[in-house]
Amino acid sequence: METPQQQSLNEQFEGKIGQTYKDSVPHWPVQPKAPLDAPNVVFIVLDDVGFSDLGCYGSEIHTPNIDALAGGGLRYSNFNVTAMCSPTRACLLTGRNAHSVGVGIISEWANGFPAYQGRITPKAATLAEVLGEHAYGCYASGKWHLTNLADYGAAGPHNDWPLGRGFSRWYGFHGALIDQWNPELYEDNHPFHFEPRKDYHLSTDLVDRTIGQIRDHVTSTHDRPFFSYLAFGACHWPHQVPDSYISKYRGRYDRGWDQIREERFARQKELGMVPANAEMAPRNPGVVAWEDVPEDARRLGCRLQETFAAFLEHTDAEIGRLVDHLRSTGQLDNTMIVLISDNGASPEGGALGAINMRKHMTHEQETVEAMLPRIDTIGGEYSFSHYPMGWAQVSNTPLKWYKKDTHGGGIRAPLIMHWPAGIASRGEVRTQFHHVTDVMPTVLDCIGVEAPRVYRGVDQLAMHGQSMRYTFADPSAPTVKTTQYFELLGDRAVWHEGWKAVVKHAKGADYAVDDRWELYKLNEDFTEAKDLAGQHPDKLKSLVDIWWQQAERFGVLPLDDREAERARDFLMAAKRSRYEFQPDMARIDRFMVPEISDRDYTIRAELSGLERGTEGVIFSWGSRFAGFTLYCQAGELVYEYLYSEVQGYRMSTSMPTGSAVVELDFKRTGSNAGQMVLRVDGQQKAALDLPKTWWTYSTTAGLTCGLAGVPISEAFKPPFRFNATLQRMIVEVGEGPSDDGVGKLWTVFKQQ
User: Fold this and answer.
1) Quick one: 31 exposed, middle or buried, by C-beta within 10 A (0-12, 13-18, 19+)?
2) Is the pTM of this model over 0.90?
């Protein structure tokens, strides 16, 4: 009897089967082919880069390779995204609105409603899935951030990882906050233990991988185009870059953010990126005049901004390597390169910025006095830095507000399109209003492919975006778009026929009573400087009504202004009292580690084959910026707790021999404080008071057993593998002060 698979194969077979091949007729299924002269497609996604940060958009930052792409193609001055990373990426890859596909907010903040699933619905095939049906090879490198937090583990499920959504290869990371010097990475469908080489930097690595994927594709086929998705960690914090780049900018920002902002604004007008009659938006609340910033804070802030600028220039250099490879292999002319940023610049550094943003946002705020002695570490592997929000406002010149806001500073982003074979115009600016949902329809239009109505048996949502191809040849063509809504964390906006209604919602405020809508005529007011709500109440009401209609149509509701609190139900449901880990297991992601925040817990390691000279890491949890580790070295069994990169605690005992059960027993003595006791075979050997502890999800790295995944202790370098036998490690977690003891951890998610 035929199996279902054999039956299926025979149903597709159109030849003839005789007793031998001599009286049989073979049949070769026709392989799909790409449309004639179909271009390659390369998406380059920058992270937290503001509207004015690129040289070709008015910046003093040196971005010659990106500027060259703009000079050989088109820049868009009225292109909009969603104000946060995951939603923008979902729109980019599906051509549908973020809420409609289930990614109305970052993946970690899923809340169980259809708009906030933290993953793209199967009803919206990605560009990779669509192009894969037309003979394209599809490859991804870098940030994904489109997988629900529950699926980050090595066991998956992997349906929503890149390989589950149309890509053949992936090398990158799931969420944000990636350490550029010591990243925790994934390849295809698994995490792996990474050992960085000398002079390593993640941006370089990602471009190396992208070039390798393209090289392998073009050398193994002569008639199939490729789609390459390159999503940098740059320039999201931590801002980390070789010092040789930082030194180029030394002193460049001493004039302060007010003057740099004015200089950028003037260049934007010269370049035609903003209208000649545009007005600069006023300073955002919380940003003081540069002349009122104390001298030490100025010095620190300038170094942090110098590092951001260097980070972007370094990214530009890596983009240049990719473009050079395409040129050298004859691929550049017929490759459509689309470069965007996922949202506006980030204000998360606050008024002063920070050298260790994890500590700054979750443990305790860093002061200028504490940071100044470490100013020379900024940008290196001992920093996890972010600039002050005054510089973020410069990045968003000349617009209002920032990332996470639906005013211009959050949603207006650079867009560069470069395709020599298909775009005859060179170096021009396009002013038509468009949205990130319009990119995929543009690509499909240029290739000559229609989005499927059914994909692998699933009825598909209609495309929400519209092709921008009409803008390639006609700079004066009116926009084909009429309406676009925006929503993020309760902030709302709608653009309709040149007008924009927008409201900045305060968390916890009543949407109907407390929110005050603003009204702008964007065709005449590029920077949202003149609120016309009082002059045109009827117009405002009609736009607000349109927003609610759009919200119903595209599945935005229910409105939810919570941030990481949204994840509470998942985290509490996933919480267990006992975990068992094994040596050399795949890394446990930082979001999937046991929840030990402000509660009692015990870690027990069962060891054998111990000798006085035994060395290596038994386990490593977190990094030097927040973490703890148990290791053997120089005849000692050592425990270290790192509150930050400059504050830690240590205890040790002599090395046992043979077999031993080592326990670390933490007892809470107060809020975020306790005592850790080290026991060997049940006998107390050492104790350590921990007056300040961090919250679990504020660690900057995950959990490994039998080795260190990233640098954590200054006593050794990763991987420092354990050279005896770790049979297993067990973590048992008690109750905290209350069932909702995870409440304080919510602040840690605000930076994503």
Assistant:
1) exposed
2) yes
